[in-house]
Amino acid sequence: MTDNLQRLQKVIAAAGITSRRKAEGLISSGQVYVNGKQTTELGTKVRPLVDEISINGKTIIVQPKIYLMLNKPKGYVASSRSFPNQPSVLELIKNKERIFTVGRLDKDTTGLLLLTNDGNFDEIVSHPRYQIQKKYRVGLRGKVALDSLKDIQGPIYWEGEAYNPISIKLLNFDKKENLSFAEIIVAEGKNHEVKNIFEAFGFKVITLQRISLGKLNLGSLKIGQSRPLTNKEIGELISYGKKK
Ligand code: URA
């Protein structure tokens, strides 16, 4: 990761000292020091946890927020709990701060996974109440007829659990792999949601990749690589929490 540079007023507000606007007042009036040097410039960028920031002689403790997108490879556990002898997605992140996965993906699922240290962000993105749509590309064993997927309306039941997919679209059949590809959009975040929906129709999911979450998509992020979310991307996801 590049140095996590953030605006001084944002860092002061994130430390819970005061609002961003009032932090600007503290800076302009000469009450803020960065590494012992008085700093009155509002646009000043600092490195939280690296630069020492003090207000009227009192050093503030900052926990910078981290938001990452990882293109999860197959075979990694996407959970903040550690499972002995099983590789964890956290091993793929160079960041040394304490972060956790937002929601979960099965070990054999690939694709878009978010990681953060912001519990509020996690709650918004993971909770079904906020209805953030997640799109998956699914490889199903054998040749699947369009008719068998077309008329999905209302809940689908599997082992006593109701599932409400938003849409399912059949894409193509790969003869060589003997796989039919489909795209499904869901928003409930239930355990094994996509696999169970297709099981209910008698289809076996062989490959599963999450390709988008809200407006976020994997883009050109290579498998096993991560990148920080932009402020715009973070803001868009957080805004779901304000809708309900
Ligand atoms: N649905 C599943 O069945 N598995 C995943 O990993 C994600 C969604």
Please give a structural write-up:
- The protein contains six helices and 17 strands.
- With 244 residues, it is α+β, with helices and mostly antiparallel strands.
- It has three domains: 6-59, Roll (Structural Genomics Hypothetical 15.5 Kd Protein In mrcA-pckA Intergenic Region, Chain A), CATH 3.10.290; 67-129 and 216-242, 2-Layer Sandwich (Alpha-Beta Plaits); 133-213, Pseudouridine synthase (2-Layer Sandwich).
- The strands form four sheets. Strands 7, 8, 9, 10, 13, 14, 15, 16 and 17 form a nine-stranded mixed sheet that branches. A four-stranded antiparallel sheet has the order 3-2-5-6. It has a two-stranded antiparallel ribbon with strand order 1-4.
- The mean pLDDT is 89.
- Uracil binds next to α5.
CATH top level of the largest domain is Alpha Beta
Please report the number of helical segments: 6
Which CATH architecture of the largest domain would you pick?
2-Layer Sandwich
According to CATH, the fold-level topology of the largest domain is Alpha-Beta Plaits
Beta content comes to: 25-35%
Structure in a nutshell:
The protein is α+β, with helices and mostly antiparallel strands.
List keywords for this structure.
Structural Genomics Hypothetical 15.5 Kd Protein In mrcA-pckA Intergenic Region, Chain A, alpha+beta, 6 helices, Alpha-Beta Plaits, nine-stranded mixed sheet, four-stranded antiparallel sheet, elongated, binds uracil, 244 residues, 3 domains, Pseudouridine synthase
Detail the topology: elements first, then pairings:
Elements: E1 6-7, H1 8-14, H2 20-28, E2 32-34, E3 37-38, E4 45-46, E5 53-55, E6 58-59, E7 67-72, E8 100-101, E9 110-116, H3 119-126, E10 134-141, H4 147-150, E11 156-158, E12 161-163, E13 167-174, E14 179-186, H5 193-200, E15 205-213, E16 216-217, E17 226-228, H6 231-243
Parallel strand pairs: 9-15
Antiparallel strand pairs: 1-4, 2-3, 2-5, 5-6, 7-9, 7-17, 8-9, 10-14, 10-15, 11-12, 13-14, 15-16
Helix pairs in contact: 1-2
